[in-house]
């Protein structure tokens, strides 16, 4: 059997799922340590700070 091409829907799903995994892995810090720590100037870190500040004000 020859190589089968993915249909358009399957190609889209493959790309979407890969991007979701990448997004989730960027968005969380599970392990402690210098290598896994988020960069200080990362947008995710900035967003977390703002959300934490708003949450503290709401209480």
Question: Would you spell out the secondary-structure blueprint of this structure?
Answer:
Blueprint: H1 8-27, H2 43-58
Task: Characterize the structure shown.
This is Spore protein. It comes from Sphingobacterium faecale. With 59 residues, this protein is mostly helical. 61% of the residues lie in helices and 0% in strands. The chain has two helices and no strands. The model has no long low-confidence stretch (mean pLDDT 76).
The number of helical elements comes to: 2
Low-confidence segments, given as residue ranges, are: none
Structure class: mainly alpha
Q: Look at the structure and give the mean pLDDT.
A: 76
Rg over alpha carbons: 19 Å
Count the beta strands: 0
Shape assignment: elongated
**Major sheet:** none
Question: What share of the residues lie within helices?
Answer: 55-70%
Order of helices and strands: HH
Protein name: Spore protein
Brief digest:
With 59 residues, this protein is an all-alpha fold.
Give the key terms.
61% helix; 2 helices; single chain; 0% strand
